[in-house]
C-alpha cells in the first residue's frame, strides 16, 4: 500500500480512475508549480468526492480548515486532475483547502500555516521557486474557468509563511517501523489489522502494572517548546487510558493519558512540552494503566513552537 510523501500527512487514496499514474521527475516530467485550490465544500466531502470513480477529478493534498490536518490522496509522482489544463496538471502539485471562496472564515491561521509548510517542503524537494509565478491559484492557470482561492485568500501572508516569515517547520515524525528509532520488548506484538494505522503496521500490548514501555527516539534539533502529537488506530478493543511518556528538558517525565478507542487515523495533540536538544528516547508508550484494552504504539510527531 502507498504511504504519504509528506511527513505527517495521512494517506487516503483517490480512486484510480481520477488521476494518471506516472513517475514524474524520474521520467523527465518536471514538477514546476504548486496550485492552490478551495474545495467549495467540506474536507470530508472533498476526500469522498476524489474517491468517487465518476468524479474524474482529484488533487494531491486536501487540508482541513479547523486544525490544518493534511490528507494526501495522489502520490507526488502521479498526475492529479485538478488544474483544468493538461500541461499544468503534468507539471504541478494540487492542494485543496477546505472552505468556500466567498467566506473568509474558512481560511484559518492553522490552515495557512499547514499549507505553507507543505508548499515550502514541496518547493525544497522539487526545486520550485518560492515565488508567485510558481505558487499560483487555480484561477491563474491559463484557460482556467475557476475563481479559487478567490479574493479572501491572503497571498501576502501565505507567501511570507512559505518563505519562512513565521511559519513553523514541518514536524518530525517517527513511526514504529522507522529504522533505529523505535524500541520495545518482545512482549509487544505487531499488527497490520487496522486501516487507520500510520505506515505499514503498529505495535500492541495488554495492560499490566509493570515497567515495559515502548520508546520513540527523536533527534530534537534545538532546545525549546514543542507540540507533541501521537497517532493511533482507534477501536473499541483498544485502551481508553493509554499512557504516553514525554521526557522534558528538566529531566522529569510527563504522563498524558489518551483514549485510543476514539480519534484514530489522525494526529492527536498530547500537549506542549519543553524538550532538550539531542538524539534520544523522547516519547514512550507505557502498558502501566488501569484502562481496558490493548495499548497501541504507532507513530509520534513533534513540532517546534
Automatic annotation (TrEMBL):
Signal sequence: where? Answer: none
Keyword Magnesium among UniProt keywords: no
Reactions the enzyme catalyzes: Hydrolyzes the link between N-acetylmuramoyl residues and L-amino acid residues in certain cell-wall glycopeptides
Q: Where is the N-acetylmuramoyl-L-alanine amidase domain?
A: 19-150
| MF-aspect GO terms | N-acetylmuramoyl-L-alanine amidase activity
Which SMART domains does this chain map to?
Ami_2 (SM00644)
Keywords assigned by UniProt?
Cell wall biogenesis/degradation, Hydrolase
Task: Check the record and name the PANTHER family matching this protein.
Answer: N-ACETYLMURAMOYL-L-ALANINE AMIDASE AMID
In its UniProt entry, what is this protein called?
A: N-acetylmuramoyl-L-alanine amidase
Amino acid at each position: 500500500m502507498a504511504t504519504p510523501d509528506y511527513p505527517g500527512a495521512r494517506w487516503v487514496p483517490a480512486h484510480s480512475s481520477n488521476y494518471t499514474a506516472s513517475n514524474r521527475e524520474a521520467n523527465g516530467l518536471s514538477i514546476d508549480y504548486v496550485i492552490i485550490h478551495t474545495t467549495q465544500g467540506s474536507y470530508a466531502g472533498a476526500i469522498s468526492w476524489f474517491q468517487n470513480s465518476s468524479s474524474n477529478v482529484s488533487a494531491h493534498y486536501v487540508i482541513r480548515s479547523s486544525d490544518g490536518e493534511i490528507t494526501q490522496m495522489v502520490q507526488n509522482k502521479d498526475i492529479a486532475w485538478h488544474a483544468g489544463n493538461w500541461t499544468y496538471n503534468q507539471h504541478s502539485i494540487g492542494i485543496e483547502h477546505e472552505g468556500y471562496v466567498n467566506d473568509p472564515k474558512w481560511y484559518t491561521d492553522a490552515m495557512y500555516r499547514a499549507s505553507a509548510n507543505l508548499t515550502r517542503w514541496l518547493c525544497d524537494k522539487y526545486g520550485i521557486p518560492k515565488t508567485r509565478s510558481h505558487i499560483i491559484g487555480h484561477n491563474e492557470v491559463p484557460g482556467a474557468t475557476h475563481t479559487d482561492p478567490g479574493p479572501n485568500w491572503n497571498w501576502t501572508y501565505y507567501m511570507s509563511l512559505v518563505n519562512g516569515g513565521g511559519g513553523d517547520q514541518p514536524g518530525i515524525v517517527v513511526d514504529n517501523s522507522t529504522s533505529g528509532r523505535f524500541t520495545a520488548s518482545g512482549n509487544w506484538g505487531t499488527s497490520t489489522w487496522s486501516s487507520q494505522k500510520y505506515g505499514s503496521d503498529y505495535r500492541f500490548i495488554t495492560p499490566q502494572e509493570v515497567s515495559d514501555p515502548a520508546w520513540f527516539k527523536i533527534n530534537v534539533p534545538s532546545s525549546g517548546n514543542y507540540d507533541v502529537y501521537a497517532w493511533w488506530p482507534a477501536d473499541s478493543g483498544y485502551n481508553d487510558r493509554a499512557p504516553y511518556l514525554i521526557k522534558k528538558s528538566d529531566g522529569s517525565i510527563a504522563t498524558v493519558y489518551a483514549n485510543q478507542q476514539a480519534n484514530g487515523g489522525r494526529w492527536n495533540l498530547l500537549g506542549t512540552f519543553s524538550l532538550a536538544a539531542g538524539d534520544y528516547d523522547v516519547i514512550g508508550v507505557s502498558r502501566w494503566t488501569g484502562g481496558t484494552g490493548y495499548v497501541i504504539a504507532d507513530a509520534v510527531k513533534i513540532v517546534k513552537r
